[in-house]
Design goal:
With 70 residues, the protein is mostly helical. 61% of the residues lie in helices and 0% in strands.
Length: 70
């Protein structure tokens, strides 16, 4: 039986060169991710502004109840 060594069991994989299609896919994926991140930031900003605008002011929140005189 042959003696097993690390080099025989675990062969190092040679990294493949990046093909033009891989390069294009990588660049497009980066662009799409960047656009999505910018869109999320914009949506968060707009949501915060809308919630602040629609929030009731202290006078609207709890109007004083009329006091009944006896």
């Amino acid at each position: 039986m042959a003696k097993r060594t690390k080099t025989a069991l675990f062969k190092a994989q040679i990294p493949n060169a990046e093909t033009p299609m891989d390069k294009t896919s990588r660049v497009v994926r980066e662009m799409v991710n960047e656009e999505a991140e910018q869109r999320q930031i914009k949506n968060a900003r707009l949501r915060k502004t809308r919630l602040e605008r629609d929030a009731p002011t202290p006078s609207e929140a709890c109007p004083p109840k009329p006091v009944k005189k006896r």
